[in-house]
């Protein structure tokens, strides 16, 4: 992709202009025939490049897909997304990232796909991942934390998505503990964290995130929405993804440098769970009800039960009752 990226940079630097293919080829040190082959490859990726005799080549439009050049073009990160593995179609980005992590892939490596055939949600559920609609990616993280603290990574991810959506679209996104992002009480994002660890050491964490960006309403399950549906317009997915990676890196660095204290404060500000009467289903299928009082210093949810007793839960599915 190096040559394609350099060709795109020439187009980006000279917007609204026709450029000589011979001049670009000379600048890049390649033949005219090689330049033409790279242009054809860009066209297959979805770039509309017009060629006019005696005028040259002009970039007319870019694809609204998750192609790597568009993700990286304005990406301002030091770690996340510097190494991107792109798939047009894949079973699961989490599975692919897990395999890469076992093979030694560095922290910050991102696996992104245009669609998933077996997208994974929490508790064995499926994440709907149609092509052309959402952002489906998994990031390899190698934090120096114990397995018991990995739930904090999930909360950092959820906070990052909430803040990225608010900043990019101005929609009123909120966090439903522990890892769902809602807009008007409809789910727009899901997060699945998987890890490889020993008793007291985390080898790596795979952070899988799915965001319904331009997904058509008819392709979504009941109770879900998309950014497009809420904004009433299409969202440039690659640009939004770049901003999301930047926010994720920023919040992750805060966790590493300052601990969980300030992250916890922000989680409480952006939570739509606290102060509500909720139903919580645990992994053992047990269901409890109570008022959500707090997110404690470990990221656990504190509920006040009907008998006045306060109980702490480290995981579970929350339904907002009232």
Describe how the helices and strands are arranged:
Elements: H1 2-13, H2 21-28, H3 32-44, E1 48-52, E2 56-61, H4 68-72, E3 84-87, H5 93-102, E4 110-113, E5 135-141, H6 151-169, E6 173-176, E7 180-183, E8 186-197, E9 202-211, H7 227-231, H8 237-258, H9 261-269, E10 277-281, E11 287-295, E12 301-304, E13 310-313, E14 317-320
Parallel strand pairs: 3-4
Antiparallel strand pairs: 1-2, 4-5, 5-9, 6-7, 7-8, 8-9, 10-11, 10-14, 11-12, 12-13
In brief, what are we looking at here?
The protein has about 325 residues and is α+β, with helices and mostly antiparallel strands.
Description:
With 322 residues, the chain is of the alpha+beta class. The protein contains 9 helices and 14 strands. It folds into 3 domains: 2-61, Arc Repressor Mutant, subunit A, CATH 1.10.10.10; 68-269, BirA Bifunctional Protein, domain 2; 277-320, SH3 type barrels (Roll). The strands form 3 sheets. It has a 7-stranded mixed sheet, sandwiched between helices.
